[in-house]
Design brief:
The structure is a homodimer. Chain A is α+β, with helices and mostly antiparallel strands. The first copy, chain A, is 51% helix and 8% strand. Chain A is built from nine helices and four strands, in the order βαβββαααααααα. Chain A has helices at residues 18-29, 68-78, 89-121, 124-138, 142-147, 149-159, 161-167, 180-195, 207-215, and strands at residues 3-8, 35-39, 57-60, 63-66. In chain A, β3 (57-60) and β4 (63-66) form a beta hairpin. The longest helix of chain A has 33 residues, at 89-121. Chain A is globular. The first copy, chain A, starts with a strand and ends in a 21-residue tail after the last helix. Chain A binds chain B through residues 86-98, 100-101, 103-105, 161-163, 165-166, 169-170, 172-175, 179, 181, and chain B through 86-98, 100-101, 103-105, 161-163, 165-166, 169-170, 172-175, 179, 181.
């Protein structure tokens, strides 16, 4: 059966969508193989006969599923033999809260740090759309955000404190093994860490051992990310 | 069977510990009756033959349980007939993360707003301990924190944003009915809202409808809190 993940990639084919990485983790946790179809923003309209406006999109045999949460739900419904992505409805809801926290506090901060780095890695035909939409969101030019990026580092350090405290008592956000909340956070760090041209976390940050553990889940998938902006050390 | 909750109260008998309110919610969700034993900080050593250093403490027949998480686990273990406080181990862990977020971002901000209000409501014999320990934590006098309290209100507004976004899509933090994460947050708002001498949330804040829904759980317990600092409107 054909299984393909349509996902955003850079000019050099690097998968950088935090939402697509959630899907990659979810597929890896179910031990499901897939083919990655890396495309640019301007190619989304060509996926699934124009049904989708955003990525990732999973084509699973004859089914087309857009949106990372819908992909997770689809995988739990259609592959019940593997470990469930969500142990209970309340865990699902708490993962939805976790996403809000991670987007509002962490992704928004990472975004200001790496926004120009993302731009510079995109396919040339994606850059005008990216610049226009992101400068509107930022209220400033990509270059102005980039020039002030180091001011965001202490904020990032501070905003990660709840997660850092939590990881003192648990190897993963969701317990003794990784859960969807871990995939949300790891996807965010992969997104920013893949393109960042400065180090996002200090070498002693207690977020790092957690991220190393989470990335182990991808080891068998043959698609471990290379994180220029995160000092993971030797993972071998 | 005798069931007693030892909890911190003010001079006028108002239960103000956010941790004790979690226990009250948990007991209410299991429909378990209990007797409240309100004491001051300086009376903790007299509870359970001096075994405890903090409140709340639940005496459940011959068992003595300290710490709000241990109380929750005790209730799930010994009263499995009622709805579980935690649907799955992952939900438990996510509630632990939620607590970290709520403490680091929300309680720390509320604390600076209400710290002098708490002091002024405590039993006279508790005030010296409270002042000394809290001024050390604050790095300033209670009066200095109080004088700057209005500066904290926009911060509180901003820091609640992840929860506010989440409650747009779910009636409770944990889903369609209240979960332990809701008890954590509601306990915090009851703690601060019981003593605050200014309004902590604006009258249009979307946190309010959630708090009203959460407080309904306590309606049958005969111990609904009175919140001077939160504009709940007419709950009748």
């Amino acid at each position: 059966m054909e299984r393909r993940l349509f996902e955003l990639v850079t000019q050099d084919g690097c998968a950088i969508s935090p939402y697509a990485w959630r899907a990659r983790f979810a597929l890896a946790s179910k031990k499901l193989h897939f083919q990655s179809c890396g495309i640019g923003f301007t190619e989304i309209a060509g996926v699934g006969e124009g049904r989708f406006r955003s990525l990732p999109v999973l084509q699973d045999g004859g089914r087309w599923v857009g949106d990372s949460w819908a992909i997770a739900t689809h995988l739990d419904e259609h592959y019940p033999d593997g470990p469930p992505l969500f142990q209970s409805p309340a865990e699902y809801q708490m993962a939805r809260f976790f996403e809000k926290w991670f987007l509002v506090e962490i992704v928004s901060t990472l975004f200001r740090i790496v926004v120009l780095d993302i731009h510079n890695r995109l396919k040339p035909e994606d850059r005008a759309y990216f610049r226009q939409s992101r400068e509107q969101r930022l209220g400033q030019t990509l270059e102005a955000a980039h020039a002030a990026r180091e001011e965001q580092l202490p904020l990032l350090e501070q905003k990660l404190q709840p997660m850092r405290l939590h990881l003192r008592e648990s190897p993963f956000v969701g317990g003794s093994s990784p859960t969807y909340a871990d995939y949300i956070a790891a996807g965010g760090f992969i997104w920013a860490g893949s393109v960042a041209t400065l180090e996002l976390l200090g070498p002693g940050d207690s977020i790092l051992p957690w991220l190393r553990r989470a990335l182990e889940l991808l080891d068998d998938s043959g698609a471990s990310p290379v994180l220029s902006g995160i000092p993971l050390g030797d993972r071998a």
